Amino acid sequence: MPIYKTITVSPTTKVYVWKVTEPESQLSRNVELTSHCQSRMDGMKSEAHRRAFLSIRHLMAEAGYKDSDLYYDDFGKPHLKDGNYISITHSHNFTGIIVSETDEVGIDIEMQRDKILNIAHKFTPIGEYKTLANAEAIIRKLTIVWGAKESLYKIYAQQGLSFLRHINVMDFTFDDSRTVAEILYKGKKSQYEIEFFEFEGFTCVYALKMMGG
C-alpha cells in the first residue's frame, strides 16, 4: 500500500501523504478502530470518505500510532494521547497528516480549482494578486494562501476567527516554498512558519507555531 510522500520537516516533525488508490476492503485490513471511530465510519455514506478515513489510519501507523491513540476535543481538533501534536487533512484521493513532538501544527491539502477565484475576496485582499502572470498563477497562489489559513485555523481552533480579518499570510513566490504568517485575534498575536508543495494539481500546506509566537 503506497505512501505517496514523507517529508521530514525537522528532527521532531514529519508530514505523511497518502494517495488513496486501494479498495475499501484492502484499506480496512489491519486497522483497528475505536468504537467512536467505527461509528463515525459507519455513518459515512460515501465510500470515498470511508477509504480516506481508513488511509489516515495507515498514515498514523507510519507515524507509530493506532486509532486508539487519537482523540478529539470539543472543537473537533484531533490530539494524541502521548502529548505530541497532530493535524489531519483529506481532499479527493489524497490524505495527509503532520505529527510533531515539539510544535503545534496544522496541515491542509486542496485541489487547485478555478472556483477559488469566486471566493477569494472572502479570505484575502484580492487586489494583491493583480501582478501575477495569468489566471493559473493566481489560482495556484490563492490555493496556497487558502491552505495556509486553513492550517492556521486548525492550530488555533477558536470560533469567531476570521480568515480575512485575523490571519495574515506574508507575500511569497512559488520558488520560496515557504513563508510566515500571523494571527491577531482578541488582542493576542501569534506567529507561524508556513511551508507548501504542489503535486498532481493539488497543493499541500502545513504550518508550525513559532516558538514564543
UniProtKB/TrEMBL annotation:
Cell membrane keyword on record: no
Domain 4'-phosphopantetheinyl transferase: from-to ranges: 105-192
The organism's place on the tree of life at top rank: Bacteria
Gene3D superfamilies in alphabetical order: 4'-phosphopantetheinyl transferase domain
Keyword terms of this UniProt record: Transferase
Pfam families: ACPS
A GO MF term: magnesium ion binding
Range of residues in the leader sequence: none
Record-given protein name: Phosphopantetheinyl transferase
Organism of this sequence: Flagellimonas taeanensis
